[in-house]
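Attaching the record inline, Q. Sequence:
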Amino acid sequence: MANLTLHAPTTLDEASQLLAHYQGEARAIAGGTAVVLMLRQGLIRPPALVRLDRLAGMSDIALEDGTLRIGALATLHDVAASQVVGERAPLLAEVCRLVANVRVRNAATIGGNLAEADYASDPPGVLLALDARVRARRGSATREIPVAELITDFYDTSLAPDELITDVLVPQPPADAQCVYLKFITRSAEDRPCLGATAIMGIDADGRIAEARAAVGGATGKPLRFIEVEATARGQRPSDELFQEIGRQYAERADPVGDVRGSADYRKDMIAVFVRRALKAAAQGESGARRV
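Structure, as predicted:
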């Protein structure tokens, strides 16, 4: 790291110009929990780092036309502690409380969490289930990208090399829907999930499923959500058989990774188990995030 140049821009325009100047070779750094580790391990050797922590207004959390807007530089602790997040997207607040430890949550940012596309992370799968999107800036151009299209594979996104996430936009979940996140941990020595299963469930007055969403994170190169499989639940009555079939289809379509937290075959089996459990818990009126 001896020849590494450190830039500390104070405006978004300046940061964007610096990234463009290095033609995709520089790395943006916010909380640094991922980038610093990769630097120390020699996994990346950028000629420069562009610090984002001095950019004003990028850690704000507010409502924007009824949508929850979370500035990309808001830390996971900020998201967990925010009153407006707790009111509009309580599951996201609870999930951020489950990430790693206090030190990491106080440094890691919500935008950095998505931009690094670390597969063994909790928030991306939950944001996928919540139909979240990000606002990204490249030069003077701004665009919005659904989380479903943002993360493309292991540590890879659809962002251009000189494009920065500025905000995370989270629509309010359907009224009266129950939202559940199950974080399955196989190693007591760490808090990274073997997989995380999210379920969002709405039951109508007739006792039938009006809304069903399921997402899986931590098990594959990118978070999984199969809209066509979810759709099979709508209009049906909740049942173990229905949720078991949805879990089976998710596992069948998944291509899990194998690592120290579980083999690919084991993860495939657990996807079926935890998608079923999350859907069942939501259908029974449970809500919130918990380790299992």
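The chain has three domains: 5-51, 61-170, 178-291. The two ends are 40 Å apart (CA to CA).

More tomorrow.
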